[in-house]
Design goal:
Blueprint (H helix, E strand, L loop, with lengths): L4 H29 L1 H14 L11 H4 L30 H4 L7
């Protein structure tokens, strides 16, 4: 006797749901276990006055967004195409895009 496709689908879906629940439980216990290490690293970053989190590893202007300027992606010439995909996923920090003209 062969199993119906719906039975097979339910068995696979149930197994995946069980694994997802186990992964969530594992993540919760590991986070609680590593809390002292996370606190120590946060204190080290505060003490050393480290800059923002490194989000992308491709280019300097996407690694540390707060340290980039508006012209960095166009190092070749102003109409150059973006070399890295991460440049299209992020926008410049607000302090670089706001105008510095006096407000009336």
């Amino acid at each position: 006797m062969t199993a119906r496709y719906s039975t097979l689908f339910c068995a696979i879906t149930g197994t995946q749901l069980l694994l997802a629940c186990l992964l969530l439980i594992h993540a919760e216990t590991e986070t609680a276990a590593h809390q002292p290490l996370i606190r120590r690293k946060a204190e080290l970053a505060r003490t050393l006055e480290l800059s923002d989190l490194c989000l992308f590893t491709e280019a300097s202007y996407t690694r540390h967004l707060a340290l980039a300027d508006l012209r960095t992606p166009f190092q070749e010439y102003p109409m150059a195409m973006e070399h890295f995909p991460s440049g299209s996923l992020t926008s410049p920090p607000p302090h670089l895009t706001e105008t510095h003209a006096p407000h009336p």
